[in-house]
Protein 1
Amino acid sequence: MSARIGAALMALLLLLYLVVVTQLAVRLIVVDEPVSRGIGIALLVLPLLGLWALIAEVLFGVRSQRLGAIVASEGPLPAELLPLRPSGRPDRSAADVDFPRYQAEVENDPGNWRTWFRLGLAYDACGDRRRARQSIRRAISLSRATA
């Protein structure tokens, strides 16, 4: 629950920042100077990109959490089967040993979003966040296609 509160707080702070930058951009655009207008127009791009990134990340979080709840209700998640380090994160060496099982599941059933989601969690347990997010994004797109 504290992770949700932290994410919501960061989203609100980013939204506040985007509003302030947009206001500054509008003020610069109305000035009768070509340079300030150019800077103002360039500043309008930043809030649009920031808003897009914020929406994309919030949607990713909501959708992955929904799929995670479904997979968790069906059995233990990959990280729950691993020994934990004192920090609470899974032991990477144990995760590396367990990883081929989840990779084989995806290879045997590449159209199943559940196997992609578990693979994403296995990547995360191994410390590969980039591939974890890619796998979970794939799971989200497969689940949306079957719904």
Protein 2
Amino acid sequence: MLKKSLLPLTLLLAMASAQAQSPAAPAAPATAAPAASSAAKKDLAARIIKLQQPAVEGLARSLVEQPAADLMERAALALPQRVAPDKRESTARDIQADVKKFVDDTVPLVRERAIKVAPLSAGALLEEKFTVDELRQVVSVLESPAFVKFQQIGPEMKNVLVEKLLADTRGTVEPRLRALEQSISKRLGIEEPAAATAPAKSAKPAKPASK
């Protein structure tokens, strides 16, 4: 990293020396620095985008899966109204198969396109908003073994957080959720099954009349 950070300074010193020796041609050094900086930015931005490729691919997948999931949800709501009871199960399976085929066929296409356009879009934004030194710092962080390890345990951290959060809030959330479910059922006119009642105690047999 030190050698790379000294490279722009070396170029500047070389250009300053050339300008001092050739004062009649000042235009060449003036255009060389921005060109070198632009090339460095482009290389560093491309490097960052490459390091973030898993995130780019995940974004591409979500762009395909989300609308497919929305369609599935709407189909599930329409199924009871549009399809006869004896055909609902088979129709639901056919719809699921159609959705799966759409996702399997479309995700690779969108993922490939995302990898191609990422340098032209996100990469260009990095070049615009960051200096060369800042881009070097970002690369250094992304390539840091500690950061790579941190990213690897991301799913595990999420799981332990969710598990602990559910345990701590179950007593608060579940009664509210049951109350919401009952409210929705009443609005839809759905009667909940009556709670089981304890069996009534059998009456004691009457004493026989004394003779």
